[in-house]
Design a protein that fits this description.
Distance between the termini: 25 Å
Strand content: under 5%
Radius of gyration: 11 Å
Helix content: over 70%
Number of helices: 4
Shape: globular
Largest sheet: none
């Protein structure tokens, strides 16, 4: 259900703000998967988690993966 995606994304935001990027990444990936499986492809929540994934990969210096989500 999309509500779980929101919860994972919000928890990811907390870890991201604490610069705990690996933990944020896991939660953003989970949120993105939940949203992708329960919402239409053009839904803003999918775009938001893709951006979060891109920024997190950028902070982890994994630019090819970051580019994939931009």
């Amino acid at each position: 259900h999309p509500c779980f995606g929101n919860t994972h994304n919000n928890l990811g935001n907390i870890y991201y703000s604490l610069r705990r990027f690996e933990e944020a990444l896991e939660l953003y990936q989970s949120a993105h998967e939940i949203f992708s499986n329960s919402l239409t492809p053009e839904h803003p929540s999918i775009a938001r988690t893709a951006r979060n994934l891109a920024l997190t990969y950028e902070n982890l210096e994994n630019l090819p993966r970051a580019e994939h989500y931009y």
